[in-house]
């Protein structure tokens, strides 16, 4: 996972990119509340990851659904954390802008598990072969 701050071009309001983390800390941050065990990065994680202390504010918007966070970001309500590749197309289309070149990364990943004896046949094999080919293609 690669995570970085994003906002709508309108919310950027003429600021020059990229923004420094301490400047991002002054903006209205939109939060995603996740249930334990926490699966999503939060602003505290991002600020710690880029080397500064997270701001402590009490009147910011918090959502319990990532799609709602993205909708609020698209509507210019503030700055959210974007997960590549979930926001890449929105950035390419100009609907969102990436505020910082400093992402944080997780050590989490995805696993492909197949039942014993099924590795070489059926749909699982077709999907596994395709996924491995895509991984090879994207890593070059």
Structural class: alpha+beta
Strand elements, count: 6
The major beta sheet can be summarized as: 4 strands, antiparallel
Please provide the ordered H/E string of secondary-structure elements.
Answer: EHHEHEHEHEEH
User: Could you tell me the strand content as a percent range?
Assistant: 5-15%
- DSSP helix fraction: 25-40%
Q: Could you say which overall geometry the principal axes of the C-alpha atoms support? A: elongated
Query: Mean pLDDT, nearest integer?
Result: 87
How many distinct helices?
6
Ranges with pLDDT <50 over ≥5 residues? none
Distance between the termini: 18 Å
What's the Cα radius of gyration?
A: 18 Å
Description:
Helices cover 33% and strands 14% of the residues. The chain contains six helices and six strands. It has helices spanning 9-12, 21-24, 43-49, 66-74, 88-92, 122-138; strands at 2-7, 31-32, 62-63, 80-84, 97-98, 104-105. The strands form two sheets. Strands 1, 4, 5 and 6 form a four-stranded antiparallel beta sheet that branches. Strand 2 (31-32), helix 3 (43-49) and strand 3 form a beta-alpha-beta unit. The longest helix is centred in the last third of the chain and has 17 residues, at 122-138. The chain is elongated, with a radius of gyration of 18 Å. The model has no long low-confidence stretch (mean pLDDT 87).
